Structures are given as C-alpha cells and as structure tokens.
C-alpha cells in the first residue's frame, strides 16, 4: 500500500529546488490576483491525473506527491460503475492501469461500466507503474474529493466519456454536494468541471450555473462565441493551438462575464512549456509539473 512520501523523499526524487518554491496556497493566490487583473503572467501549472510522471495516475499517491511538490491544482477523470458509483479512472477500461485481467480474466474488455464498485475496490492500481506502488487502489470520487481537501488542493474535474453514462453530470454534482464541494468557497476557489462533451458541459452549467466550467478540445474560432455562452474555459491540446488562437479565445467573455481562460494539455517538457507560455496560455496541464514550473522561472 502506498505511504505518503515526506518532503525529504520528494527532495531526493525531484531536487532541493522543489522545497524552495511557494506552496499551493501561495501559487494559487498569485495566479488568482493576476487573473483578476486581466493580464497574463506565468501560467498556472495543473498536475495531470496528479504528478503522474512519478506516481500511478489518478491515485492518492499521485495527488499527494503533487501536493508535496507544491502544486495546488490537480486534474482527474470521473466515470461510473455498474452499480452507479463514481470512480476516478481515465480509460473506460480498467485493463491498462489495474490488474483486472488477472483478477477477472473472463470479463474482457474490462469496461468500468461492467464492474461494481466493490469489485473495482479490490484491484491493484499501482503495480503496473512500479513495484513500490503495489496495492494502490482506484479511488471513488468521494474518497478522492476528501483527499484533495485534506491536501489543501483544488480540482479540475473531467467528466469522462459522458456518452457512456447518461445523467453522470447530475451524479457528479450530487457527490460534490454531499462531500461539501458545492459550498460558496469551493465553487469560487477550488473547482472547475470540464469535459470533451459540449452537451455535458452545458448540462453542468444549466444545473449549477455558479460552477466554473471548461470545454476540452479546440473549437473553430467562428464557434467560440457559442461556447462562451455556457463555459468559462477553452482547454485544447497544445498541438492544436497558436498565439492567434489563444488571442481569439481571450477576446471573448465566458459564461460568468470574465475573459475566457485557456489551459492546454498535455505539456511535459521545458521546450513545450516555453512554447505555449509564449502563446499566452493561462494554464498548462502536465504529467511533469516540476519540469513545467522550472521552465517558467
């Protein structure tokens, strides 16, 4: 089972410089002030599925390590089990990141929607990444939200493949409410909900118009005004954008009357980080948050 590394462990892996940088609260405060001023500064660095270059994605290990490295924002993926529990997994199959093939060999293709939450809770979600992570589990959304709160972190929550899970937006909002994430403080300062499904983003906005939402992908410039009616962020792949595209996004105001925000993914090296920073993006989503942060110095 994963034991949370102390700061000394993070230092040994990532270098002493990680301990000299501002922690999550300081980083978030600086970025919020800059955003409110309506000007571009160093992009917000968002740990993609946690610090997933160094620990198994979407596990407590990955978000704990991101916290130890000083990153306020983590991104995750939410899907629904056969019996209606929301779990934090990226793929719609459990095969890549768990031992489901060994545990349940006759149930290919091992789709999340075909397994109960109790069955998924028995799977090893760490050994695929390395022996030291053996015993890590797939967290439920409830468990994950509580851990993010304990870490003092903030969440970019992706509703994954909503076409597979009709009504998952309502389910997600219910769990967020039950776990205390829909109070004014969390909604204003700690939560963004995004999806590749425009209808899913619209559903969240319609059900809770106070929540900040993000639309994944790269809509045509001509289509951006229609997206701005229901979303606050346009979050595209870094391979699909240019300085001109970023400027086109920034010319519009989103659903809450603020300038549209743009966070790009998944940027994992210093050269890529420098490139998109030059475009003027507001956030960089990365498996290697330390590498991206160092590139911004």
Describe, in plain words, how this protein is organized in 3D.
This protein is of the alpha/beta class. 36% of the residues lie in helices and 14% in strands. It has 13 helices and 9 strands. Strands 1-2-4-5-6-7-8-9 form an 8-stranded parallel β-barrel, surrounded by 7 helices. α12 (270-279) crosses α13. The chain is globular and about 50 Å long. The chain starts with 6 loop residues before the first helix and ends with a helix. The model is unreliable at 1-39 (pLDDT under 50).
Architecture blueprint of SSEs:
Layout: H1 7-14, H2 24-36, E1 44-48, H3 60-68, E2 73-80, E3 86-88, H4 100-103, H5 117-121, H6 141-150, E4 154-159, H7 168-178, H8 184-189, E5 191-195, H9 198-207, E6 212-216, H10 224-228, E7 233-235, H11 243-250, E8 261-264, H12 270-279, E9 283-286, H13 289-296
Parallel strand pairs: 1-2, 1-9, 2-4, 4-5, 5-6, 6-7, 7-8, 8-9
Antiparallel strand pairs: 2-3
Helix pairs in contact: 12-13
